[in-house]
Write a structure and sequence with these properties.
Layout: E1 2-10, E2 13-22, H1 40-47, E3 52-60, H2 64-70, E4 78-87, E5 90-100
Antiparallel strand pairs: 1-2, 2-5, 3-4, 4-5
Length: 112
C-alpha cells in the first residue's frame, strides 16, 4: 500500500490535510509523481479511473498531527471527508481529507 500525507495551501495558508492510501496495483507510479505540479486526484483519475466512490462527511476535531500540519489547535472544528474509490470492486484509494472549519465553506446553487 502506498501512503501520502499532503497539505494543500492557498497563498501560504493550509486549507486541507490529505491523508491517502493507494493500491499500488492500480497506480504503480504514484509515489514518483510530482504533486507540486498536479494533484493526487487528477493523477489517479488519469491512471485508475474510478467506477464507484463512497464517502462520509462530518464535522469533528483534527488529529494532533493534522492540527499541527494545518496550523490550528486540536480543538478547532474541521470538515472531515473520508472517501473510498474503487474500479470494478477493486479498491483504488482510501483518503481522509481534513479542512479547518474557519477556512472552508461549502457553497452551491440550484435552479429548477
Amino acid at each position: 500500500m502506498f501512503h501520502t500525507l499532503i497539505v494543500h495551501s492557498e497563498n501560504g495558508v493550509p486549507l486541507q490535510c490529505e491523508d491517502r492510501y493507494v493500491n499500488p496495483a492500480c497506480a504503480p507510479d504514484y509515489l514518483s509523481v510530482d504533486f507540486s505540479q498536479t494533484t493526487p486526484t487528477h493523477y489517479l483519475l488519469e491512471v485508475a479511473p474510478l467506477w464507484e466512490a463512497q464517502y462520509s462527511i462530518e464535522a469533528g476535531p483534527p488529529s494532533p498531527q493534522e492540527a499541527e500540519l494545518l496550523g490550528i489547535t486540536p480543538q478547532d472544528p474541521c470538515l472531515i471527508i473520508v472517501r473510498r474509490t474503487m474500479n470494478r470492486d477493486v479498491p483504488i484509494t482510501l483518503a481522509r481529507l481534513v479542512h479547518p472549519g474557519t477556512r472552508y465553506q461549502i457553497q452551491g446553487q440550484f435552479k429548477p
